[in-house]
Structure formats: C-alpha cells, structure tokens
Amino acid sequence: MHGLVNLAMELYLRETFGAQMWHRIAGQAALPFQSFEPLIIYDIALTVAVIDAASALLDRPADAILEDLGTYIVSSASGERLRRLLRFGGVGFRDFLHSLEELPARARLALPDFHLPDMVLTEMAEAEFTLALGAPFGGAGYVMIGLLRAMADDYGALALLEMRAQAGDGDVISIHVLDEGYAAGRRFDLAVGALSRC
Amino acid sequence: MPDGGARHRRLVLQPDSLDRLMPMHLHLSAQGRIIGYGPTLKKVAAGRPLIGKSFFEVFLIRRPAGVLTMADLSLRQGTRLYLSLRGREDAEFRALAMPDDGSGMVLNLSFGIAVVDAVRAHGLTDADFAPTDLTVELLYLVEAKHAVLEELKKLNLRLEGARSEAEEQALTDPLTGLCNRRALDVRLAAACRAKTPFGLMHLDLDHFKAVNDTLGHAAGDHVLRVVAEVLRVETRTSDIIARVGGDEFVIVLPGMVDRSALHHVAQRIIAGLRRPIPFEGQACQIGASVGMTVSTQYPVPEAEKMLADADTALYAAKRAGRAQAQMWPHVA
Fold first, then answer.
1. Distance of CA A178 to CAs A185, B74, B278, Å?
2. What fold does the segment set B4-133 form as a domain?
3. pLDDT, position A198
C-alpha cells in the first residue's frame, strides 16, 4: 500500500487520538518504525495490522475507523491539498461523481506508482448511483464512504451514502444525491493554490 | 469523387455553439473588425467592449512578425500565431486563424504556457474552458507536482539528517569523538595526494592495560576520553587525530615537517599524558611513546609505508625506555 495512504491513516490516528495512542497502535501492529514515509510503498499487511490494532485499542469497529479516516483525509487541515486536487474533478457533486472513474488515472498522473482501486459508477435512477470499487483490503470501501461524505459537504450537496454489499474482492456503495445545492459549499479557485505555494 | 460530398458541405455554427466549443474565439470581418468573440475572452478583456474595433488595434501579433493586415493573416492561416492584447503585453496568447464561410476569419485563442498565471489573473473557473479542454488537468498537475515536490523536499531533509548522522557515526570513534581508522585511511590518503607536506605521529599509551585490568573498563574509557582531550589541546584544529586501536592513536599534522617542531609537540603530548588522571578517587597513571615520520622523506608519500615507518620509530621509542619520541629513520 502506498505510503501516502498509510501516512494519512497515521496522521488521522495521531491527530485524533494523540501521539501516545499512535505509538501504542504502532507497537501493537509491530511496525518496524515510528512513522510512515509518504513516498514509499509498504506491504499491505502493515496497513491491515495498523487497522486491526487501532480497532482493538480504541474499541471501535474497523469500519467506523475507516469511514472517519475517509472524512479526515479531505476535511482536516492537512488534507486541504487533497481536497483541492479532488475538486478538480468536477464543478458540482454529480460532476465530481462522474469523474471518480478517472480518479485512479488522475492519481497516477501525479504519482506513477500510486494505484487506487478501479471504480465503476453506475447511474441507477435520477440522482441514484452505485459505485463499485475493487477493495485492496476488507472494508476499504468505508474510506471511500467517508471521503464522499466530506466531498458532498464540500460541494454543498446533501447525499445519502451506504455500503450496499461487500463482495470478496470489492465493495459497492450506494449514493443518493438528495439535493445538489443544499448548502453554499466551500469556495474553490482553480489557480490559487498553484501559485501561492512554491 | 468519394470526398466530393465533403468538399461541398457547409457547416454554419450559431454563435452560441461557437461560444461553447471555443470560448476564446474571435470572429473578424473581411475588414478586420471584431464582429464576435467568446465568453472567456470577454472575461479576459475585463469590460473593454471589443465589438466593432479593429482586431489589429486591439491585438498585437508578435510572432511571426509582419502580420499587420487581413491579407497577412490570411496568408498565415493554419499556422500558430503568438499575440497579446495591446497595453497588456505581459500576457501572451497562442492563436490559430482560419477563414469563416465568407471572407472573414475565425481565430481560436488559448493561454499557452502561461495558463496558470492567466487563470489566476482573470479569476477563471472550470466553466470558462470547453469541457474537452485539458487546461484544468494541467492546473491539477501543476498543483499535484507542487504537493509531491514538497513531500520529496521533506523526505530529502529527513534522509539527509539520517545520512549525516550515520556518516558521523561511521567516521568517528564513538568513545572519544576522534576520527576512527576508516576516517584516517581516507584523510591520510588525501594528505598523501595533497601538495602540502605533513608530519605523522603514531602514539601508543604505556600502562593502559594495567589501568583497564585493575580499575575496570569504566576507568579505561575515562582515561581514553582524557587522552583524546590532551591530544586535542596539544595539536592544532587543522591536525587530524585518529584512534586506530584500543590505546593507539595517529596524528596527521599538515604543514608540519620541521623535526624539532614535531619533537616539541610530541614532548608536550608525552608530558600531558604523564599527569595522573583522577577517576572515582583513584589516580590512573599512564604514559605515552611516540614514533614519527615526515612526508618530505619520501619521493612519493604513501600512507602504508609512512604508517609502518612511524610504527618502527614508535617501537624504537618503547625499547629506549618509554615516554619518548623518535623520528624515522633516526631511530635509536
């Protein structure tokens, strides 16, 4: 699993539950280091070990932790950059949903060794979608649910998200967009970030 | 003729369609007046009405040179043009001009390579570009590249820190902070290659084993740290001091080849090391013997040979009764 994903997980646990808890989780997961590096590829077993250790030590189901992680990676201060990169996907939330199938290719444009699971969006009815994604580990789709929830909020849309099915090698999420213009959403300027940070 | 139909086909686009397909187009009359232009160009013109104006008065074609009339423009159809708004020469556009279905021309503009600045300067959004246009992807890439570079920079800093720490450990004797054998090999080889002549001292402690055996390793370690301190004090900062064995030290003294000066330094070191070293209420008594050589004695100085000669001188000094310094080849 790419270091960026592992590091996001580490930052979420660190910032939400404190450095001490992170060290306990890292210890229980038997990580051979104190912190993940963002540009290194790690064995997926380490990722799974961290999730299992966090679930045990925090006494919370792994699904809930993963969903919160998804929300964290786009709504926290450190996730601002990712939020902006995701906002390039579309003008509105529905437009953004349609851009999800492009997301793995988009991620590879930025980082050639960053492999996101394949995603297939199907429009079932007016404003009702399903998103099927190949999950690299059990419950990875919950991260996507959390992320989509935060992005809907960012676009100012009201959406209902649910895990439909967890097949052996993939998750299916149902997305019901109730109101695309529910709230004002957050501002997005195409070029602001690109120039102010160097 | 198989393509006869295509040759006679005419396509008439309504301005609305043109606006969406090419939001940065300009439509010019046969006389070179602007008779229509796309919505994104409207944003760029920032309230300056362009309709009816002469294209060549509003825009400057910078490259190729000499495109000043509609006839010139017509000759350049199908090739890339570089132009800017007059009075706003800092912002350059790329353009392509093709004839319309009459005697006017249609130009399609783009921001070219300065697109990031243009998007910021004009506050453009996704909706200002045709949905087929990859400009937004370019902006995405610029931003993603900045993010990746920032991470790389941080990673490099962490690696650099770890690296210099590792190198420091690898070249330094951890107990005394002096150079270790590896560092000496590197630096002595460099001294041999350098033009500056140098003196070389090989120093061996006397009675160190007795301190270790009677007072223990902690006392021995303490003594070695004190010895290192004496060596630092009695040499110049440009000299290289290395601990090359349990109680053996080598000192390289660049620029110092005068025998009496070297003897003088050696005597100061020997005197410094003869002073008892207190450790937990006990006094550790050691001493030192020194063997020396200078690079000017060799046609081509070689580290191995010089170390061997200094070593011979050292053993001569030991045989002569310890606490002495001897210079190769004048050994007693």
1. 15, 53, 84
2. Beta-Lactamase (3.30.450)
3. 31
